[in-house]
């Protein structure tokens, strides 16, 4: 990588504003998957070992510029403290006089976690004033938040214009591994796109159609495409204003010779709940008051076969609502197919996809689990990541 990293700069005695991605899944105040916290440890430990005073900043969820009690980073500070084996103090703000006072008390090797940066409206707007306020806390900026590197926000991009700015070790590793996989992809090259962030991912598909041999669609995303094919989808997830775009993608796939795989059957439910009544139906037979919450077994079989026949697979987004056992079958089938495909280089991206693989105890059988979903997709599309571009060149 042509960007400076923590290894290229003097750290001793420096106050370091280190942006990490602690956007972990939570349920009832408990962290349900700590992959992203663990992934940030090497950089934090490196900073500690080299005598820096470490300020950690992250977002959690999408609080939209307001304080949302359930999105405080307090549970993360507690878990981080256990993982690091040292006290991690947490403040309830992310900049300002009170925070400065805490920073002034730090000794070399101390770690202080700031509050969720998305509690401030300026964060996502990349407000230069907020970026300056963050920068005023520190001597050096380290970006280790690969998962948020595709966002040009005050703590991921703006701040880098006010301080010396370098990458963390996780950021460096992600860019290295993904870059190598993509520079000359082995073929057949397959992308599997699922999950629920329809708006974010639908644009990515356009670019992927230029690169891949097979494109597999699953998860909540799929039903906008199913609707575009002319089928009724009942209460399933739908992005109404993306139906025309979905049609265009299917046409483009055909023109480019990209094989486009969509669900042929689905597990449907009469409500969004673990206790729902469920059945498996062909994709064109979803009743009006039911919703599709997983791909069906026939679809899972077809997808597994495509995976077996691929040399490189990038997977982003679960095939169904895997958090509920009744709707985990499709995601499990895809994960197992990847685990069993010994000749296939598998790259898993996205917090939820990583959590799913972890849940099925298949994590160590994947070639690379990226901490970034949207970020890894944008990188693989060949887009510049603003959080990386803003760092100092070597
Ligand atoms: N058919 C579906 N309907 C509604 N939600 C779904 C469906 N399939 C998957 N999901 C949800 O998508 C979420 C993950 O979406 P997303 O954040 O886009 O993935 P990732 O974090 O892997 O990038 C999961 O919480 C899952 O429950
Ligand atoms: O979870 C994240 O993205 P991902 O679900 O695409 O992996 C990152 O923390 C970025 O979060 P955002 O998509 O709310 O900007």
From TrEMBL:
<protein>
    <recommendedName>
        <fullName>Phosphoglycerate kinase</fullName>
        <ecNumber>2.7.2.3</ecNumber>
    </recommendedName>
</protein>
<keyword id="KW-0418">Kinase</keyword>
<dbReference type="Pfam" id="PF00162">
    <property type="entry name" value="PGK"/>
</dbReference>
<keyword id="KW-0324">Glycolysis</keyword>
<feature type="binding site">
    <location>
        <position position="151"/>
    </location>
    <ligand>
        <name>substrate</name>
    </ligand>
</feature>
<feature type="binding site">
    <location>
        <begin position="21"/>
        <end position="23"/>
    </location>
    <ligand>
        <name>substrate</name>
    </ligand>
</feature>
<comment type="pathway">
    <text>Carbohydrate degradation; glycolysis; pyruvate from D-glyceraldehyde 3-phosphate: step 2/5.</text>
</comment>
<dbReference type="GO" id="GO:0004618">
    <property type="term" value="F:phosphoglycerate kinase activity"/>
</dbReference>
<keyword id="KW-0808">Transferase</keyword>
<comment type="subunit">
    <text>Monomer.</text>
</comment>
<feature type="binding site">
    <location>
        <position position="201"/>
    </location>
    <ligand>
        <name>ATP</name>
    </ligand>
</feature>
<dbReference type="InterPro" id="IPR015911">
    <property type="entry name" value="Phosphoglycerate_kinase_CS"/>
</dbReference>
<dbReference type="InterPro" id="IPR036043">
    <property type="entry name" value="Phosphoglycerate_kinase_sf"/>
</dbReference>
<feature type="binding site">
    <location>
        <begin position="59"/>
        <end position="62"/>
    </location>
    <ligand>
        <name>substrate</name>
    </ligand>
</feature>
<feature type="binding site">
    <location>
        <position position="118"/>
    </location>
    <ligand>
        <name>substrate</name>
    </ligand>
</feature>
<feature type="binding site">
    <location>
        <position position="323"/>
    </location>
    <ligand>
        <name>ATP</name>
    </ligand>
</feature>
<dbReference type="InterPro" id="IPR015824">
    <property type="entry name" value="Phosphoglycerate_kinase_N"/>
</dbReference>
<keyword id="KW-0547">Nucleotide-binding</keyword>
<feature type="binding site">
    <location>
        <position position="36"/>
    </location>
    <ligand>
        <name>substrate</name>
    </ligand>
</feature>
<feature type="binding site">
    <location>
        <begin position="350"/>
        <end position="353"/>
    </location>
    <ligand>
        <name>ATP</name>
    </ligand>
</feature>
<dbReference type="InterPro" id="IPR001576">
    <property type="entry name" value="Phosphoglycerate_kinase"/>
</dbReference>
<comment type="similarity">
    <text>Belongs to the phosphoglycerate kinase family.</text>
</comment>
<keyword id="KW-0963">Cytoplasm</keyword>
<keyword id="KW-0067">ATP-binding</keyword>
